[in-house]
Amino acid sequence: MSDKKHLIVVGNGPVGHQFLESIAASGKAGDYHITVIGEEPRHAYDRVHLTAWFETREAASLNMVADGFYEEHQITAIANEKVEGINRADKIISTDKGNTYQYDTLVLATGSFPFVPPVPGHERDNCFVYRTIEDLEAITAASKDAKVGAVIGGGLLGLEAAKAIKDLGLETHVIEFAPRLMAVQVDDGGGALLRKKIEDLGVKVHTQKNTQNIGDGETAKHKLSFADGAELETDILVFSAGIRPQDALARQSELEIGERGGIVINDNCQTSDPDIYAIGECALWGGRIYGLIAPGWDMARAAADHVLGGAEGKTFTGADMSTKLKLMGVDVASIGDAHANTPGAKCYTFIDEQAEVYKKIVVSESGEHLLGAVLVGDAEDYGNLLQFALNKITLPEHPEAMILPNLDGSASVGLGVDALPDTAQICSCNNVSKGDLCAAVQGGATTVGDLKACTKAATTCGGCTALVGQVLNAELTKLGVEVNTDICEHFPYTRQEIYHLVRVGQIKSFEQLLEKHGKGHGCDICKPAAASILASCWNDYILQPEHAGLQDTNDRMLANMQKNGTYSVVPRMAGGEVTPDGLIAVGTVAKKYNLYTKITGGQRIDLFGATLDQLPLIWKELIDAGFETGHAYGKSLRTVKSCVGSTWCRYGVQDSVGAAIDIENRYKGLRSPHKLKMAVSGCTRECAEAQSKDVGVIATEKGWNLYVCGNGGMKPRHADLFASDIDTETLIKYVDRFLMFYVRTADRLQRTSVWLDNLEGGLDYLKKVIIEDSLGIAAELEAEMALVIDNYQCEWKTTIENEERVKQFRSFVNVDGGDKDIVFVQERGQIRPATEEEKARNEDLIAVA
Amino acid sequence: MSWTTICSLSDINPNAGVCALLGEEQVAIFKVNGQIYAIGNKDPFSNANVLSRGIVGSLNDTLAVASPLYKQHFNLETGICLEDETVSVPCYQVRTEGDLIQIAI
Ligand SMILES: Cc1cc2nc3c(=O)[nH]c(=O)nc-3n(C[C@H](O)[C@H](O)[C@H](O)COP(=O)(O)OP(=O)(O)OC[C@H]3O[C@@H](n4cnc5c(N)ncnc54)[C@H](O)[C@@H]3O)c2cc1C
Ligand code: SF4
Ligand code: SF4
């Protein structure tokens, strides 16, 4: 026990946490008494995505610590306590709570703090910084009585803060000292375009403004006075004028400090005291502070390895500071020597004022290598360009082709991924190299989704998704793995291709499809797939004689087959709303046919134990009572769950039930590659669990937030935020397009979650297609959806109105009567299928025929 | 052996099946491209009488029906399960007389 060493981490931010994760991953956490002490009131959270707090206003959504992580690895995690001193001689630290802790090894992961320029008045009320969840809470609270907000600093973080203020509904100003925005990352040309785009969003940009005083305002709380005599009044002020390393502890204990701050470290991340490490934004390596998450994580991994004895020989030897981000919806990327400071460097620039795109590449004097790049408005080339720069790959003869649009539709000049060395880092967020990806493919991964799961590549910022896909394909080809994507032996096509053939060729039946494009008789793979595609395209009645035999088990009888060959019946209750009379009608039917009754997870009622011949009788009664089919049997829209919303709930901000009912009625009957589930919550408390659905809608004060591609079930996936604060019309437009695009392009039985994980370009690409209509197909998608909606019919109504169809539900073609082998027993006051033993015992059995 | 008339050809949807009751026995009868096949209706894997409701098709040129419950395939001409040859369902002789489907018992 007592010979275990004490390992203490000061600062529980993203980097401190990565250090603990690395220690835990080594399996050696048990060799130490590990303590992490953080000053903030909560444990590590995702500061990179701090702004996402506004989506939910719940701190929990940013949490980085997996449930049970501290317990499992016996880590003592202390929040709300600040370390104030290090006694290096006795190896003891002391805190503001008066506690002392003994260490053998100490890791400083204290990050940085925002620099607030010492302008007179900077300490006034309603002056904030933008660094912690508490900062955001305070800004939000202050915004309630404010009309105008200003941010001092037009860098990366300043623009993020400006977006937040804009989203809070305030008139927003950005004040920058330099002549352009994001002066560090972009050049004049890119800065000018960025400025235009941001001003188009309604944010006022003031450059070359040196704030000299903050005093009382006349129309607003503060008045800012600038060196050039100009003035600006604002109610809220946010300082975002850069960060400074939090090195106070190192100064106090006389560790070596850089000239302009930062705790000096070596390649193992040790400070001038070998028992003390420093990692993340507080550390200074090679005279530099690295204000990004990826280098911080690299330091954490190197330090953890060294603390554990250096088995893996990991070191930190600097990092690339290239970045790609989205600022107020504008793609911005900067690579390497963006300002062409290298002697002899030459630039190629492409400006498209129409599409508002700016691209510049910086090449070496010889024209052989890429030194840097700036991309504004379209950063798709980032992954490719970064690889050229990092790996010093020889440029093509006309490097400008890499940023010019390819108007003739030919493949853009990218690099073959074969040109990359195995050491090339593909995913910088999670430090995944090409070699790691290749190893995973050799180990059996065959999809981008597999690679994400086993290597974590492309799971943080997603900028490398396309490259990951290219490595995957190249490696599969090399391994001679023939990626056979044919749907089955009868059709040499993927589902997407068949969809296309059906739509373009106006094919209306499986027979036509087989004759034109397939062979053999079809099977239980291609037939239901074709049935679904035919229904998605033309939405004919699925039990027409030529379609009936194609339908999968449940569609075949418009009910869900259960283990004993009986069916369950689910009437639609849109949005989960049902009248007392409706409830009584359902109860009466259930009682009459002795059906087992259960509430489903989708907020409706499931009636079990109906025999084939009972189905039309039951449906006749349900339809007479005003119900229609719930499509519980189909690969189609199931339910749109809702909470009671603003109509009843004291927190609700929109009528979530009304919206859910409208959405359910709009998309009911849409056949899709797999089932679709949706939900609408009336406020951010999210009682309808919309973020676990294919389409999730959450009410905001200004409209709706749309989430897509969530999933519960076997592989849960949190839905991604797709659009914020949109009105109902826009919501419906996006959902129309989204669903039809999914129907067009997904594989057979692929839920939206897996579909998105495998979609090249990921969420950004999807947004472009749906929101910006980058493929020019939005109108088509909407028209296709309109056709489906126009042709909606309650399949059960159509069925019971047609005698020939009803005949298909007879148990026997030659005699009346039902299946004598179907027997039930009574349990908890209802029926359930009898087991084989119960059947053999032949006691208390309930027969239906 | 005698032939019993079951139903007419038009009682079965193209490339689909129906179930007939012969005494206590349930027989699944399929119509594939106009040809008639008959095998037992009880799915040996679930003991439920459901094979007539499965999807018919071909696998490597063998005509088969897929059980609607757990999706094993049964050869329409022999009743043998394609996934496990030790399992099979009965197989019946069928013929058509004009528009009528008849089974031998
Ligand atoms: C709004 C915003 C957007 C960003 N976007 C990006 C981005 O897109 N890409 C990117 O790469 N980076 C981004 N960053 C930067 C990124 O968040 C940082 O690089 C990262 O948080 C650094 O992690 P860290 O653990 O070193 O420091 P921190 O996150 O600062 O964590 C340090 C922790 O230590 C605590 N602490 C400090 N001193 C003490 C003490 N004496 N005792 C106890 N606890 C102490 C602090 O309270 C803090 O919780 C962004 C940052 C912000 C604020
Ligand atoms: S999500 Fe909001 S509106 Fe809906 S029930 Fe919960 S708290 Fe009420
Ligand atoms: S979780 Fe399993 S047992 Fe339950 S309904 Fe789904 S498939 Fe059936």
Automatic annotation (TrEMBL), chain A:
- Identify the residues that the record assigns to the NADH-rubredoxin oxidoreductase C-terminal domain, covering every copy: 322-385
Domain (Nitrite/sulphite reductase 4Fe-4S): give its ranges: 634-770
The cofactor required is:
[4Fe-4S] cluster; siroheme; FAD; [2Fe-2S] cluster
Q: Which GO terms describe its molecular function?
A: 2 iron, 2 sulfur cluster binding; 4 iron, 4 sulfur cluster binding; flavin adenine dinucleotide binding; heme binding; metal ion binding; NADP binding; nitrite reductase (NADH) activity
PROSITE patterns, per this entry?
NIR_SIR
Please list the residues that bind [4Fe-4S] cluster: C643, C649, C683, C687
Pathways per UniProt: Nitrogen metabolism; nitrate reduction (assimilation)
What family is reported?
Answer: Belongs to the nitrite and sulfite reductase 4Fe-4S domain family.
Self-association state and partner proteins as the record states: Homodimer which associates with NirD.
Query: What is the name listed in the Swiss-Prot or TrEMBL entry for this protein?
Result: Nitrite reductase large subunit
UniProt source species: Spongiibacter pelagi
Lineage of the organism = Bacteria, Pseudomonadati, Pseudomonadota, Gammaproteobacteria, Cellvibrionales
**Gene of origin?**
nirB
From TrEMBL, chain B:
Quote the Pfam families the UniProt record gives: Rieske_2 (PF13806)
Its lineage opens with: Bacteria, Pseudomonadati, Pseudomonadota, Gammaproteobacteria, Cellvibrionales
Q: Which UniProt keywords apply?
A: 2Fe-2S, Iron, Iron-sulfur, Metal-binding, Nitrate assimilation, Oxidoreductase
Protein species of origin: Spongiibacter pelagi
In alphabetical order, the GO MF annotations are:
2 iron, 2 sulfur cluster binding; metal ion binding; nitrite reductase [NAD(P)H] activity
CDD domains linked: Rieske_NirD
Where in this chain does the record put each Rieske domain?
Answer: 4-103
Mind telling me what this protein is named? Nitrite reductase small subunit NirD
Q: Which GO terms describe its biological process?
A: nitrate assimilation
